[in-house]
Design brief:
The chain is 25% helix and 24% strand. With 208 residues, it is an alpha/beta fold. It has a single domain, classed as TIM Barrel, CATH 3.20.20.70. Strands 3-1-2-4-5-6-7-8-9 form a nine-stranded mixed β-sheet. Bound molecules: iron/sulfur cluster.
Length: 208
């Protein structure tokens, strides 16, 4: 099998980095987790803090067995697949293998591509820069909207109207604008209690 076919089938993936840390944000904040960051993103958020992930070709293609072996070398059995935009790839084989080895599988995605993979928790973080694929709304367990501008509250509500009823709804201040926006988010959540706040606690803890 050539490399392109292996990537198309999700048997090899461009791996930007993989590391064991503490999930800093969202519902699983505080949980030890093995992060698998795949290279490649076509969403183009202006405030993206992992712009180096955008170009998939910069990162080595790694077989899924090797990726899972890396995760198995740590105690925790929670994996977070992130990017870049991980749904640019077929995640069925990787997540199947992770689940066969006893992992809980989480994904963080902008939802901009067709869904794939077997996930226990789907964190959907829509971005203004590329429209989500409509299939993501029924998959999302958590809707996490990064607040960079005041118009992001309205943007958040537009997506909240489309997710499942039991989907968690989180507003998270964008790190560089946290000082300006956190107060607005606090006021918003107090007036709209169906929303909760997510903070990037890993940035306070100075961990990846
Ligand atoms: S979707 Fe994520 S990786 Fe892609 S540009 Fe936006 S913040 Fe960066």
């Amino acid at each position: 099998m050539n490399t392109k076919t292996a990537v198309d089938q999700g048997l090899m993936l461009p791996l930007m980095e993989a590391f064991y840390t503490i999930q800093g944000e969202g519902t699983f904040s505080g949980y030890p987790a093995y992060f698998i960051r795949l290279g490649g993103c076509d969403v183009g958020c202006v405030w993206c803090d992992v712009k180096e992930s955008w170009e998939a070709g910069k990162w080595p293609l790694v077989g899924i067995e090797e990726i899972v072996e890396g995760a198995l070398s740590y105690e925790g059995r929670l994996v977070v697949i992130t990017g870049g935009e991980p749904l640019m790839y077929n995640l069925d084989p990787l997540t199947r293998l992770l689940k066969a080895k006893g992992f809980t599988t989480n994904i963080e995605t902008s939802g901009a591509h067709t869904f794939s993979g077997e996930f226990d928790w789907v964190c959907f973080s829509p971005k203004k820069f590329k429209k989500p694929h409509p299939g993501i709304y029924e998959k999302a367990d958590e809707l996490k909207v990064v607040v960079f501008h005041k118009s992001d509250f309205e943007f958040a509500e537009t997506h909240a109207a489309k997710v499942k009823e039991n989907c968690r709804k989180l507003l998270q201040p964008e790190w560089s604008k946290a000082e300006t926006n956190t107060k607005k988010i606090i006021d918003y959540v107090k007036n709209h209690p169906n929303w909760n706040i997510s903070l990037q606690t890993h940035k306070f803890m100075d961990i990846p």
